[in-house]
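#onboarding

Welcome to the new folks! Below is a worked example of what a typical request in this channel looks like: someone posts a single protein sequence, and someone else replies with the predicted structure as tokens. Don't worry about understanding the tokens yet, we'll cover that in week two.

Example request:
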Amino acid sequence: MALVIDLKPGEKILIGSAVVTNDSHRSRLHISGEAAILREKDVMKEENADTPCKKAYFLIQCMYLARNPTEYIDKYFAVVKEIQHAAPKLSFMFLDINEKIIEGMYYKAMKQAKELIQLEKDLIDHVTAG
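Example response:
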């Protein structure tokens, strides 16, 4: 079964190591096969990984896109350790994320890490407001 993606005019999508940019009209792509696929809105650039949870997301993204994902594992777990030390309240989130990483389900781990970024933002906002 093919993955169907609707692209807005000018929207970009990553398919494997190729960036595909839509032209000025809406398009619908039917993609079959095994390739990492990311919409532009889900791509985090390294310079934007400016908080611990964003760094964790970025490293999971690297695992998802890499031919050899294991090269990012140690860096990822070092960041997780830092986060759990600073905010033990977030540890429960990593149980499921780490399980998905171990199983090689990097895209699903990224989705959960995106939720983690929001929790981190809420915690930072709470600290700065109070």
